[in-house]
Amino acid sequence: MAAARRAAAAATPRKGVAAVRLCCPFGFFDEDGVEHYWRTGQRVTDPVEIALLNERGAEIEVEQCPQP
């Protein structure tokens, strides 16, 4: 669990983080009742979505950009 929290903290949008993958299914209903859901293994590249997953405590793995 601590490793997942470290990965989530590392996933905040910043240089070098191209994408994250979900370690387990994650979802919630927002304040307007809209459902948000991601599947296990789903790759997320949108920095806004990555921040949202991080804020909500989703278990994610960070994918680093390939180095030249």
Structure notes:
It is a single chain. This protein is α+β, with helices and mostly antiparallel strands and 68 residues long. It has one domain. It has two helices and five strands, in the order αββββαβ. It has helices at residues 2-10, 47-56; strands at residues 17-22, 26-29, 35-38, 43-44, 60-64. Strands 4-1-5 form a three-stranded antiparallel sheet. A two-stranded antiparallel sheet has the order 2-3. The longest helix has 10 residues, at 47-56. The chain is globular, with a radius of gyration of 12 Å. The chain starts with a helix and ends with a strand.
Termini separation: 32 Å
What number is the mean pLDDT?
Answer: 81
Helix content: 25-40%
Total domain count: 1
Order of helices and strands: HEEEEHE
Alpha-carbon Rg, integer: 12 Å
Assess the beta-strand content as a share of residues. Answer: 25-35%
Q: What's the overall geometry? A: globular
Structural class, from helix and strand content? alpha+beta
Nutshell version of this structure?
This protein is of the alpha+beta class and 68 residues long. It has helices at 2-10, 47-56; strands at 17-22, 26-29, 35-38, 43-44, 60-64. It has one domain.
